[in-house]
Amino acid sequence: MLSPALIATAPALTPKARAPSFSQREFRASLAMFATGVTIVTARTPSGELVGLTANSFNSVSLTPPLVLWSLSQAASSMAALSKGSHYAINILAADQKALAERFASKHDDRWQGVAFTEGVAGAPLLSGAAASFECFNRSRYEEGDHVIFVGEVERCCHREGAAPLLFHGGKFYTEHPL
Ligand SMILES: Cc1cc2nc3c(=O)[nH]c(=O)nc-3n(C[C@H](O)[C@H](O)[C@H](O)COP(=O)(O)O)c2cc1C
Question: In sequence order, which residues have a C-beta less than 8 Å from that of residue 40 and are 6 or more positions away?
Answer without folding.
Answer: 52, 53, 54, 55, 90, 91, 93, 100, 101, 104, 127, 130
